[in-house]
Amino acid sequence: MSPLKAVAPDGTFVTGPDTTERLLTPGEVARIFGVDPKTVNRWALTGKIPSVRTPSRQRRYRESDIRALLDAS
Fold this sequence. Notes:
This protein has a single domain (6-72), classed as Multidrug-efflux Transporter Regulator, Chain: A, Domain 2. Helix content is 37%, strand content 26%. It has 3 helices and 5 strands; from the N terminus they run βββααββα. Helix 1 crosses helix 2 (37-45). The longest helix has 10 residues, at 63-72. Pfam families: HTH_17 (PF12728). Residues 1-20 are annotated as: Disordered. Residues 23-73 form the HTH merR-type domain.
């Protein structure tokens, strides 16, 4: 994996040399929207919300993407 795209143990996503962004779990996103975590994963599969995969292939959601969706509502 490239050092410019790594998930740190604290849940941040390194996108550049000086840029990190918090990644949210499906459960965290589900609490924000008031839905089940499986619904959040379905939204990602259908392209309704963007997601990234960790090295262990778990789905995570950038906090900035979720904030943008909330602001658009």
